Amino acid sequence: MVVYTTTMGFCKMCRNMTKRIGRATSGAGERLKALRLKARMTTREVEKLSLEISESKRNPEYFVSHAWLTNIENSEFTPSIYKLYSLSAIYQCRFPDLLGYFGVTLADIGMHQMAVRLPRTHLMSGPNSEAHEEIRLPVKLPTDSSLDQTKMLSRVPEAWQKLPLTVFQQLNTKDMLYGYVGFHDFTMYPLVRPGSFVEVNPRQSRIRATPWTSEHDRPIYFVELRDSYVCSWCQLDGRQLSIVPHPISRLQIRTYRYPEEAEIVGRVTAVAMRLVDPEEMAVTE
After folding, report:
1. What percentage of the chain reaches a pLDDT higher than 90?
2. N or C: which terminal CB in the chain sees fewer CB atoms within 10 Å?
């Protein structure tokens, strides 16, 4: 690829591309300029401070020149994550807020992760967020709210409330694992539907012949196979582990050598699932 440069050292092709991006995020530059004016800084002062950050990071990408900042504020360019990092530090504002100026909302990541229709069952990484981060919930929860009562959740996004993640630390979930039941996994259907999220207690990784009176009381386990995971009832006979599906699923019982071919990750202790498939909702509506 041939690169043509101007006397300012910018790539013409990149300049045209960033201009198109800039128009798509119109207004972001003006908001960045407002932050600079609120901090009572000139573009030259921002340039000097960003140079210090760039040198401390040993990465020139953090440097925001006077000319580049002017173009950003005029919505001609969209800054990289490095330059946005520098502006966040200089203007003393939260980095996610600056990302929001350009249409990137980190709080939406979890929602989109849930919307992705992954075909296979797998384990999810547990919470790995700082205590000061927040999560959006579709319900207003006062401090004295009881989790024992059934509630109607608001469908209006504006009514969603941001709560610190420290609130959820009181639910004693730090020692739990989380799994996702793939949309192609009908092993426990309809008890655990495809697309469900499950909480797994890794401390209960042994199959015990505990008495149960109904299918709702029978322990469900999250099992790791050689190349996949499965959420199901289990039966252990010596060194033979049987994956027992729900009768309505019409799937066959599968057997594996234990623990060579199958390993119990833990017992499923909670399930979050849809009762109506999103595609079915679209048809009925």
Report:
1. 48
2. N
